[in-house]
Amino acid sequence: METYNKIPNVNAHLHTPYSFSAFEKLTDALDRAADENVNVVGINDFYSTDGYEEWDKEARKRHLYPLFNIEFISLQKEDQDSGIRVNDPNNPGRTYISGKGLSCPPSLKEPYASQLAGVRAESNMQVKEMCDRVNLLLNAFDAGFSVDFENVENFMAKGLVRERHLAKALRMYAYIHFKNEPTEIKDFLEKIFNGKTLKSDIFDYAGVENEIRSNLLKAGGAAFVPEDPKTFLPLEDVCNIIIAAGGIPAYPFLGDDANGEFTDFERDIESAMKTLKRRRIFSVEFITTRNSMDVLEKYASYFHDNGFVVTFGTEHNTPAMEPVLLHTRGNMLLTDRLKQINYDGACVIAAHQELVRNGKTGYIDANGNADADNRDKYIKMGNELIQNTAK
Prior knowledge:
Strands 1, 2, 3, 4, 5, 6, 7 and 8 form an eight-stranded mixed β-sheet that branches. Helix content is about 45%, strand content about 10%. By secondary structure, the chain is an alpha/beta fold. Strand 7, helix 12 and strand 8 form a beta-alpha-beta unit. The longest helix is centred in the first third of the chain and has 29 residues.
């Protein structure tokens, strides 16, 4: 069996249809990864581990090394009270958190299993209420059709229904009702958008769905339903769920936006690192398409050099299809330095997964403490695991 003669490509954060995804099927993500020479792939769905066993089986069929991850939206009360924006630029205190290297097959004991199930139920209920409001709006405009939530839940989603599913469903129902006639579709959408002009081409489905979401389902939209506070567990509880599920809590950096701006929490890199350590988070990740090369180099190198596990991904949690091979904002491929940082992080996660699977203590122990002093040992072990999947 051959081994890789270059730094293997890693995409450690990919959403699948088990939450919402640009991919129609889970295997589409893996086929694209194989076609683009991405060798290590991490499933990273919201509130869901349902795709793990399929991901494991299908990745290995393609000689790809699978990582098993999850994503939550949590609430950090002290940041909310202080008005600090963390990695949600619009909502102080709201904090996205990933778990890396969870157990596969999934295993989660009580009370953590019920906590996770409760979050999923609350999230689905919010989208159900949005669907009800969409139908009230359609009825008010005599649209001649409505959106069947059960149909969306049963045929478009896989357990977790997101507002993007609802935007897609509304777009599909409208196009069917108006028989794909561009002028009628455009007039209808602008009517329910309260007169706002449709910016996307009618047959740019991803663009139209994004406009439906923005104009109707986000704050200020006619079908918007604010999330119940019960949807957001405290950050500490989320980290405890991740650790109990065998994983490593990881903070997803938002990084610089198109104007070079940062959130309050992320602006001071040293302060952010100290706070993350205090909160038992010893891993970070970046969605590379969001960031400039300079910022990605600076932040990823800083955390890697300070003992953190650092990985990168693309998400693919919108309707738009992008490459699976990582690139920065502006379509620049990663430098060898960034590829090595990403690969080192994937190796640690791979080693952690394997150790926990065999009933041993991984990179993170049961109390959330990281074995950072021995990170190189995990990199070496993970490298051997990943190399053995090469063609």
